[in-house]
Structures are given as C-alpha cells and as structure tokens.
Amino acid sequence: MSRLAAPVPATFDPADVRPPGARDAWRTFATAARLGWLIESNWTDPLLFGIYSVARPVASALILVVMLEVIAGGAAGAMRSFVVVGSALWSFVMSGIAGLGWSVLDDRERYRMLKYVYVSPGAFVVTLLGRGVARVAIGGMGALITLVVGVVFLGVPFDPARIDWPLLGLSMVLGLGAILAIGVGMAAIVLQTRQESWHYPEAVAGALLLVSTAVFPLGVLPLPLQAIGLAVPLTWWLAGVRQALFPASTVPTVGGEGSAWQAITGSLAPDTATIALLLLATTVLVTLGAAAAFRVSERRAKDRGLIDQLTGS
C-alpha cells in the first residue's frame, strides 16, 4: 500500500508583502505618465497632436498682443514681452492644475476605471502626478512655440547672453512644483464634488489668472486682490521667469507706485533674491497644504465610497 506524499508547504517570500519602494514608485510614475500622454493625444500621430497642442496657446497670445496694440498704441512695446511670457507660461498652469482634476474625473466618470486604478499597486497620488506631468509636458510644447512666435514674429526683444540662467532654472523647477501641488489640491476637491465638477479646474485656473500677473502687472488690481496675489506662488514664478529672461524690463510684475508691495515693504519692486525666496516659501506652503488636503480627501472618499461611485456629472 503506497503512502500518500505529504503536501509541500509553500515557501513564504517576504518580498511578496514588502511595501512599495522607490523603484516601484518610479515604475508607477513612468507608466502613468505614458498613459496620460496617450490619453491626451487620443492615440494619434505625435506630429498632428503637437500642431493641435500649440495652436491654442499661440492663438491666445496673438489675440492678447493685438488687443494690446489697439489699446496702447505706441506704448505697447514695453508690455509686449510681459504679455507674451505670461501667455506662454500659462499653458503650464492650465495643463497642470486642470489636468490632475480632469484625470480623476476621466477615470471616475468617463472610463469608470478609478476604483481599479486606486487598488492597483503603487500609490494613488504617484499615479496622479504621472498623469499630471504628461499634461504639463504638453503645455510646455505650447509655451515654447508661443515664445518662439513672440520673438520671431512679434518683435519681443530677446538676448540669450543676458539671461539669468540660475534664476530661470530655479524659477521653473519651483514653479512647476507649485503647479503640480495646486493640481493635487484640485484633485482632492473633485474627489468630493459631484455635479458639474468638470468646470471646477478651469474656474480655479481662471481665478488664478486674474491674480497671478499672467497678462497684466499685479499693481493694477485693487489692493485686496494684490494681497492675494502676493500669497500665490504662481505670481513669484512669473516674476522670476520674466526677471530672468528680460532683466532690463521697465514693467514690474510685482510692485510699482501705490502698490500693496510698496505699502508692505516700502520698496517699489522686489529684487531677484527676494523673488526667489518668496517663490520657495510660497511653493513649500502650497505643497504642504495640498498634501494634507489630499490625504484628508482620500480618507473621506474611501469612507464614503466616493472612489467607485458615479456622480452623474
């Protein structure tokens, strides 16, 4: 009589239950970024999508410049570079801030895949950041083309030898970080909202357009709005980039006679070091606030079943 062999116990591999590390986070981020690019381009030809992506920001910049020429006439020369740079950089803002919120809404309402994305390996916020970076890269294409059009066809004075490269690099790194942080905060909001959530990201970006000196100096706003603008990192990002690209510009992004900046500090305009320091400080504060808001929103969404619930918006 043969004896039945005893079952061999499965070998426990501690790697199967290890927490995700840096390598796993990078793979999640890279996969989400590639997916975001494919979704945004609708799986179309890269050249065709590139032309489509840059047409809108270029058209917006041209409209603003023509309006400026008609209104200001001969005095528009000093403002031309101000408007072109602001319009170009705002492509990053629209893509980053609205992009993360729309990523949540796309996966929850349109594709109905948010619950599967959420339970997949990798942190949910890393996936969102990957999707957001893909959208920011698309916005960067439009920003670059807008600047080229401004220099070549609109007469914006540009001298590469006079660029403050350290300030430009620091401003772009911190500015893009601030944009993604605000986008994470926007994602936290749309996790909780229901009807008409698709309009919220654009509404927030439009409000920031008013107080962030994208198309006009902060000093032309009423003092209460100037005070809000001084607390927004996008204001200092735009100020830093303009200062780096056009150090001899006579149009201050922040400050001027009778401005809130002059009332607070006593000086007409901030210097380069002050711009960099305030950009760093406001970016850190916004990033910490967005991270805390996202954690609270994520916990509440799980408790109330909002991650796998369609809102009908």
- Count of extended strands: 0
Mean pLDDT across every amino acid position: 82
* Order of H and E elements: HHHHHHHHHHH
Principal-axes shape call? globular
In DSSP terms (H or I, runs of 4 or more residues), the helix count works out at: 11
Low-confidence stretches are none
Beta-strand residue fraction: under 5%
Q: Sheet with the most strands?
A: none
Distance from first to last alpha carbon: 70 Å
Structural Rg: 23 Å
Task: Give the structure's gist in a few sentences.
The protein has 313 residues and is mostly helical.
Keywords:
313 residues; mainly alpha; 11 helices; 0% strand; globular
Report on the structure:
With 313 residues, the protein is mainly α. The chain contains eleven helices and no strands. It has helices at residues 22-40, 46-72, 77-110, 114-119, 124-153, 165-190, 200-211, 223-230, 233-245, 260-265, 272-304. Helix 5 crosses helix 6 (165-190) and helix 6 runs antiparallel to helix 9. The longest helix is centred in the N-terminal third of the chain and has 34 residues, at 77-110.
Write the layout of secondary structure elements.
Layout: H1 22-40, H2 46-72, H3 77-110, H4 114-119, H5 124-153, H6 165-190, H7 200-211, H8 223-230, H9 233-245, H10 260-265, H11 272-304
Helix pairs in contact: 1-5, 2-3, 2-5, 3-5, 3-6, 3-7, 5-6, 6-9, 6-11, 9-11
